Amino acid sequence: MPKRNWVDPKLFGWKPLNYVNGVPWPRLPMSTWQSSAVPLKEDYLLRSMDYLDTDEARIIFEAQADIIQKHRFQGIVDVGCRTGPINTVLQERGFTNYNYMGFDTSLEPILFAQRTWGQFENIEFRHTSWDHLQQLKVDFKVDCVVWSGVLLYRPHDHLDFFHKVTVEYYNASHAIIQEPLREQKYWHQSLSLNTIADDLYMYQNKYHSFSERLIDAEIFGGRRKIVELAI
Question: Which long-range contacts (CB under 8 A, 24 or more apart) does 189-198 make?
Fold first, then answer.
């Protein structure tokens, strides 16, 4: 059995985790607090979002893994995968018979993931964008497309774009959508939240089956809605 490689985070400008009142938070620049908008960037440093690597955040990816295991999906595409934490959960549970391709526009998390999972022939990471679908082909049948907090980047056409990628391009039978809820327990009152969680009812009206689960992770913006869709 292959094993995960230990990768020294100091190679990626490691810093101690950022906690606010004991809760993992991202390292937002001072300009963010002054502008009130959480920035939506295409290239995050590994340490910028490392609050998602904490034990407190794991419940989010466990919920996604629950769905994958329930249906025993064998072909998974992970959109906006960052370091691919869902693989850690699946591998530790002994669920290993699957093919996975995750992609992200942030270079450092992808490099970290490639080094970590380099011995696994069934797990692949790509540094690319959904604007280049020709770079996202896979050589396995896709059962499930995972959208982890990224559809909010397309607030005006997220449903159409979801359909284009999930159904028309990958012909997937299922999808998992994870988005932050508007009401948050750990937040900063000066910030506005980018979210499409209130619009996910539109997916219920369009596809075969729809179920949702609410997650309350003890992290910044940790209240998430996780939707399971059968196409």
Answer: 190/33, 190/36, 191/32, 191/33, 191/36, 191/37, 191/38, 192/36, 192/37, 192/38, 193/38, 193/221, 194/37, 194/38, 194/40, 194/152, 194/155, 195/152, 196/151, 196/152, 196/155, 196/158, 197/225
The string of pLDDT tens digits covering residues 28-39 is 765 555 555 555
Q: What sign for the dihedral angle of Cα 63, 69, 73, 76?
A: positive
Q: Which string of b and e fits 46-59 if b means at least 16 CB within 10 Å?
A: bbbbbbbbeebbbb
pLDDT (tens digit, 9 = 90+) per residue, 36-74? 555 567 788 999 999 999 999 999 999 999 999 999 999
Distance of alpha carbon 95 from alpha carbon 112, whole angstroms: 22
